[in-house]
Each structure stands twice: as C-alpha cells, then as structure tokens.
C-alpha cells in the first residue's frame, strides 16, 4: 500500500491584490514582496526588473489576479478504476517523492474523470517540490528526465523504467496575467494552486491514499452536473479568454441539459467575448473542434453565436445558421462519424468565407482542403449520376487519393445520401491503362500537348464506365491529335 505524507495548511486570507495596472517598478516590487507572506517563493531582483520592463508598454491589459480562499472538503475515493492506475512505475514515482519529503497528488481532469467513474485519458501530477528540487531528486534516484521545455512552466517529465512518462508540475500562483498568458510564481499552498484553475470540477486534487481535496465545491458541482468557474467568472475569463471555449467544451462533457447555463456565467461571457481576439487561432481551433463533436453541440454552438463568439473565431458576420441546423439534424441522426470541419463548413456560403475562417483558425492543410471541397461539391442533387461524378473527381484529382476519398465521403455524409456513401465506399478506382511513358514512345511532344491527349483519353475511359482497354484507347490517338492539331515528333 502506498502511503503519502499529508500536510496541513493554515487557512489564509487573500492578500490585497487588485485588478490594476503597473504604477511603477517600486510599486510592483512592493506587491510582489507581499506575496511572500502567503506561502510563495521570493522573486529574484532580476525577474522583478525584467518582468517590469517587459510589460511597461502594455499597462492597459496586465492585471493582478485575486488570490482565492477556498473551503477544504475531503472524501475518500476507493474505486477499482483508481486502484488500477497503480502501475509499478507510478508506485516508484510516488515512493520517490515520499522518500525525499515532498507531497505529490493527481490534479485536475484525472480527478474529475475518476469521480465520474471514467478512465482518465492522461494524468497530471502536482507537487510542492520546485523544478530544481525535482531535478536533484530524480538525478539522485537515477530517474531519467525528458522534454526539458516544460521546465520553464514548472513541469518536469520523468520517464520511469523506460515505460511510462509522468509530467509533474510545481504548485503555482498567477502573479500577473494578460488574458492569454500568466506569469507564475511557485507556492507550497495547494489551496492557492486550486484557486487559479478555471472550473470547480477541474480544481480538485487526489492523494494516493484516495483522499480527494476539494477547495471550491467541485465534488458537489460534479454530482449535480454543474459547470462553474472558480470564484468570479469575470475574473477567471479575463485571466485567459480561451476559458470561454473551455467552458462550453466542459459543459458538453458534464451537463445533462443542453441549455441550462447559469446567468452569471452567460453574462460574464457576453461581457468578455471580445477578448477572444487575443487568442491564437491554433488554441481556438483545438477547443472548437472538440465542441463541434461533443454533447449538446448544436445548442452550444448556437449559444456561442448568440453571445457574439462567431466573429472572433473567424465565422462570417451572418453565418448560415439555417444550413447548420439542417446539416446538424441530418448528421446527428447518422451512424457515421463526421469531422469537425464538415460541421463548421455548414456556416459558410462560399470559398471566400472558408479561406477567411482558415486564416483565423489556422487549419491544417488537410482541414482547409476538406472545408473548401465540401463547399464546392455539396448539394449536387441536380446531377443525374452522382456516383460517376465523385468517381471522376477522385480519378482526376491531383491531390493525394487517400485524402480525396475522405473529402468525398465527408461531402456525401453532409448531403445525407446513405446509399451513395455505401456505393462509393465499396468502389475501388481502376487504374488508367495509358501512361505518359507509352505516349513518349509514340513520339508525342512533352508538356501541354501530352497533357491534352492524356486528359482526353482519360475522359473517354471514364465515360465508358472504365471499360475501354489500353489497345482501344491507343487506337483513338490519331483522331485526338487531329482534334488538338498536335504533330508527332520526328525523333
């Protein structure tokens, strides 16, 4: 059995930190100095000076977060799923921290998932040990460390027995925030670290003896399927405006009701939605794609648009909401999985709007091309033979055949043509029997003339339902040359 030393902390009051701008270097030092009285490590003179200089020109956006005082409640978790996490590598990790006198706990999402009787996809760990102390500890015990980039954020990654990686982050407090990033300082106080997190359901810790440490009523909110910010929603959102989208993502994961948001949360999002323009497209898209495939996604996306999110994430000023509703109902009743971009393309009327959205959200090349493809090829009901149409698109495309197949299947799902989707998925494209090498041997000029001949022959082959043989196609070359006024090379 793994025993973990549990520390007892004295309840502390919030220091007088105000949401204000820098008034000067002396004032900044004074405020930072006050933090050391509340369980925080002292900032060095260089860090204070550099921090001040780095932010002197952005006084209107830099704020001091308020330190929140929680109300600790504990309970025991004894589920089999929790016990199954104790691999030999995890046991060694915990034993190492205990041996060196540091406490370590599971943090955030893993605790939430275990309380919901779900297997955590990954586990984050928190500790009172600083990165330097962890490095000394792991070096002493001969444990390899990887991914040194995480150290600047207070995270050390230990690889144990060459089997498992464990990311362990030092407890911290946000000293200054700008709506995107936070300058943090390490602390030994679990309550302060809990108070800097976004949602109550993500603010809990779990000791390895099964003790759940809940400072902000996360257990009760989880039981009631409520998604709430820690403390004041306005304060939490202004620390990182991406939390607007994180709220909706977790609402889809937790809530049993499609549209039962607390009014204080809705109002805070409405008042702060413009802050999303500060967030990078990559971070926005990472959250948005999960929302689009999550529970209650139609209600949540429409709620986001109602609150003004759309224009800050790259959607047009008047997105095609009616089309989205139609496509959502169609796809929601389908058994086939659909990509996030396919849903999102319903809001867009043309490729110009698609390219503008791509410019904001920074799609991958695959996602960008999928969005453009769906917009170009959707709603082709007027075509008599849609199977032949998409077969032709696949065979004539210059993109990767594997990607184009996905594009076509997503477009057919978008249109809701179940029979066509099955026909296309069961079809394997035949190989075009004529190659450029054969035409070279026949002394066709290279470049545009050869391209014209190949394309003409390929179209004849497609029109014959791919039945014309190589011999038949080659016999038609003289008439094709005459049609395009092409002369064979003499040598």
Key phrases:
24 helices; disordered N terminus; alpha+beta; 47% helix; two-stranded antiparallel ribbon
Plain-language structure description:
By secondary structure, the protein is of the alpha+beta class. Helices cover about 45% and strands about 10% of the residues. The protein contains 24 helices and ten strands. The strands form two sheets. The chain has an eight-stranded mixed beta sheet. Strands 7-8 form a two-stranded antiparallel sheet. A hairpin with a 4-residue loop joins strand 9 and strand 10 (about 210-215). The chain is elongated, with a radius of gyration of 30 Å. The protein starts with about 25 loop residues before the first helix and ends in a 7-residue tail after the last helix. Mean pLDDT is about 85; it is low at about 1-60.
In short:
The protein is α+β, with helices and mostly antiparallel strands. Helices cover 47% and strands 9% of the residues.
């Amino acid at each position: 059995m793994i025993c973990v030393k549990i520390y007892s902390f004295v309840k502390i009051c919030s220091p007088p930190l105000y949401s204000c701008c820098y008034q000067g270097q002396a004032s900044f030092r004074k405020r930072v100095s006050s933090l050391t009285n509340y369980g925080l490590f002292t900032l060095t003179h260089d860090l204070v000076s550099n921090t001040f200089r780095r932010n002197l020109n952005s006084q209107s956006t830099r704020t001091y977060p308020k330190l929140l005082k929680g109300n600790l409640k504990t309970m025991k978790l004894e589920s089999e799923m929790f016990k199954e996490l104790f691999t030999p590598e995890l046991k060694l990790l915990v034993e190492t921290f205990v041996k060196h006198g540091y406490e370590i706990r599971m943090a955030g999402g893993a605790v939430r998932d275990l309380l919901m009787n779900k297997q955590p996809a990954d586990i984050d760990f928190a500790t009172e040990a600083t990165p330097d102390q962890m490095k000394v500890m792991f070096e002493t015990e001969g444990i390899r460390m990887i991914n040194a980039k995480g150290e600047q954020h207070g995270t050390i990654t230990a690889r144990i027995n060459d089997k498992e990686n464990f990311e362990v982050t030092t407890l911290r407090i946000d000293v200054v925030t700008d709506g995107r990033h936070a300058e943090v300082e390490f602390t030994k106080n679990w309550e302060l670290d809990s108070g800097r997190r976004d949602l109550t359901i993500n603010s809990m810790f779990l000791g390895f003896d099964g003790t759940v440490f809940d400072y902000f009523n996360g257990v009760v909110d989880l039981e009631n399927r409520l998604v709430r910010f820690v403390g004041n929603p306005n304060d939490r959102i202004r620390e990182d405006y991406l939390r607007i989208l994180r709220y909706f993502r977790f609402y889809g994961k937790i809530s049993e009701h499609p549209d039962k948001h607390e009014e204080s949360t809705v109002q805070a999002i409405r008042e702060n939605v413009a802050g999303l323009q500060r967030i990078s497209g990559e971070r926005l898209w990472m959250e948005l794609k999960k929302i689009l495939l999550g529970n209650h996604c139609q209600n949540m996306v429409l709620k986001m648009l109602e609150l003004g999110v759309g224009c800050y994430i790259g959607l047009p000023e008047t997105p095609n909401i009616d089309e989205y509703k139609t496509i959502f109902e169609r796809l929601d009743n389908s058994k086939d999985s659909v990509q996030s971009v396919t849903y999102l393309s319903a809001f867009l009327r043309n490729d110009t709007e698609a390219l503008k959205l791509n410019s904001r959200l920074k799609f991958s090349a695959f996602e960008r091309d999928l969005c453009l493809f769906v917009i170009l090829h959707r709603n082709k009901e007027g075509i008599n033979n849609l199977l032949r149409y998409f077969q032709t698109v696949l065979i004539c495309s210059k993109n990767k055949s594997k990607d184009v197949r996905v594009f076509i299947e997503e477009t057919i799902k978008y249109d809701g043509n179940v029979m066509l989707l099955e026909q296309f998925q069961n079809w394997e494209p035949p190989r075009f029997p004529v190659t450029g090498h054969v035409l070279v041997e026949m002394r066709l000029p290279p470049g545009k003339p050869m391209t014209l001949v190949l394309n003409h022959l390929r179209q004849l082959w497609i029109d014959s339902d791919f039945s014309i043989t190589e011999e038949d196609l080659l016999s038609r070359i003289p008439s094709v040359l005459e049609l395009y006024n092409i002369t064979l090379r003499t040598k």
